Amino acid sequence: MAGETETTVGEAENGEAVPLTLVEQGGLEAALGDLPSDHAAWARTNGFTGRLGQWLGLPGAGGVFERILVGWGDAAARRREIFPLGGFAAAAPAGTYRLETALGPREADAAALGWLLARYRFDRYKRSDSANEAHLLAPEGVDGVRLGIVAEGVYVTRDLINTPANDMGPEALETAARKIGERHGATVSAITGDALLEENLPLIHTVGRASARAPRLIELAWGPEDAPRVTLVGKGVCFDTGGLDLKSAAGMHLMKKDMGGAATVLGLAHMVMGLALPVRLRVLIPAVENAVSGNAMRPGDVLRARSGLTVEVNNTDAEGRLVLADALTLAAEEAPEVILDMATLTGAARVALGPELPAMFTDDEALAADLAHGAAASTDPIWRLPLWPGYERLIEPKVADLDNAPSGGMAGAITAALFLKRFVGESSWAHFDVYGWSNADRPGRPKGGDCQAARACLAMLESRYGR
Question: Is 406 strand, coil or helix?
Fold first, then answer.
């Protein structure tokens, strides 16, 4: 994973690097006034305007580019794109580049990270030439080592989500966690199959038992025992047929990404461990395949969770919150300082916020403020939705303590989050309902699996605990 794709920004000398001049739309003439007359004429002849996404190489001796003009658009255009340099980074000819235009610290950081994320390629299943080597020297004031670790964490998440379900079942997800753990000296273990019942993880077992690929609870532990405890929980539904409430063909089309929460927490764990944050990290991943067979759970079944609460299954396609319930209960038993869970949980969150904006839920105001600050500082957007207590009644059926799929379909992301809240006790907790996918190529965000909210969480943890 990620090993074949550039994940560092260089710190070499500038001598051989091609300068990149960022040209704002509306500031073309001022920029051209600083160039030799033949280069200015070349830019005008080729219709360069400074529009965001535009770029133009200025020829030098020997047929190589002497300078690259990169359209920087206007402030409104840059607000619409998280990584405005990503468009050029994805298309850059082979070579080494340096930013000649001075940027503020946050803009420089986003430009360098956008470069790395735009260089991502997933070509495991394609016969293709290797991507050309295009490197950016770290802009002044940018920590290239840190950005490399962050980018690699994003790559880990993207690779896991992009891998098709035939090669990314529960066992393969465990193998991926073990490789990440081995790299950082973490301890990784798994409870598999019927052992889940012996260890009182019944909901994880029930959801996954219909698959030929055994369900499991994967656990990673890292860091000093006496450090502040941080627990990450990720939904690892490696493929979701919907169970007996079977999805349509169109509904199953992207269900290889239903383990996107697990992929995201593994990417975040890589960042935390790679940056050596002074925490005791615990990662819990309920890894299952929601399949159909004679022993599949049925609509109307009543299940007892690890916590002792009973759950009426009104839709077998609302399985993610079931496996998370047991994992969150297990997480809360250790009373960590914070629990963060990630899940590709509801279509309702996408209807409300679209594919690019993850929903975040918490009733801890200090945690909400820290996450909002982390999201802004890392250009990794999240949007808080309410844990509205008035909807608690919707998740309380007559025959059990909880309903996994309230009828009516309204406020689906909120009722799912309220369901999860029942399993975290008094813990400081935040839940992220992510999409985990980019529907189209955007600067720094190629089409395919994507890592959402992890950098915001990392920034929050760095702010709280340092490095």
Answer: coil
Q: Which residue has the tokens 């990440």?
A: 180
Residue of 121, 213, 247, 464 marked catalytic: 247
Residue among 251, 244, 343 at smallest CA distance from 301: 244
Q: Are residues 120 and 172 in the same domain?
A: no
Q: Output the DSSP codes for 377-394.
A: HTT---EE----GGGGGG
Low-confidence ranges of the chain (pLDDT < 70): 1-15, 129-131
CB contact set of 26 (below 8 Å; sequence gap of 6+):
50, 74
Return the sign of the alpha-carbon dihedral for residues 461, 168, 361, 320: negative
Is residue 321 among the annotated active site residues? yes
Percent helix, strand and coil across the chain, each rounded to 5? 40, 20, 40
**Cβ neighbours of residue 73 under 8 Å, at least 6 residues apart?**
24, 25, 50, 51, 52, 53, 84
Residue with tokens 């960022």: 22
What pLDDT shows up at residue 15? 58
Beta bridge partners of residue 402, listed in sequence order: 311
Take residue 198 and report the two structure tokens written for it.
Answer: 């012996």
Is the separation of the CB atoms in 177 and 22 below 8 Å? no
- Give the end of a domain, one of 134, 164, 189: 134
Do residue 198 and residue 303 come from a single domain?
yes
Asked if the structure places residue 126 within a domain, the reply is yes
Using only C-alpha atoms, the chain has a radius of gyration, in whole angstroms, of 24
What's residue 130's pLDDT? 62
pLDDT of 419-446, one tens digit each?
A: 999 999 999 999 999 999 999 999 999 9
Rounded Cα gap, residues 356 and 257, in angstroms: 15
Per the structure, the complete domain to which residue 252 belongs is given by 148-465
- Residue 180 contacts residue 153 (beta carbons within 8 Å): no
Say whether 307 sits in a helix, a strand or coil: coil
Give me the CATH number covering residue 456.
3.40.630.10
Instruction: Indicate which residue of 158, 321, 421, 455 is catalytic.
Output: 321
pLDDT of the residue at 129: 64
State the pLDDT at residue 10: 52
218 to 12, 126, 262: CA distances (angstroms): 41, 30, 10
**How many secondary structure helices (H) and strands (E) does the chain include?**
16, 19
Element (H, E) at 312: strand 310-312
Determine the pLDDT at residue 63.
77
Single out the residue of 297, 302, 306 nearest to residue 326, CA to CA.
Answer: 306
Give residue-wise pLDDT tens across range 15-67.
Answer: 589 999 999 998 889 989 989 999 999 999 999 999 999 999 999 877 789 99
Q: What is the pLDDT of residue 358?
A: 98
> Is 216 an active-site residue?
no
Task: Say if residue 295 is exposed, middle or buried (CB neighbours under 10 Å; 0-12, 13-18, 19+).
Answer: exposed
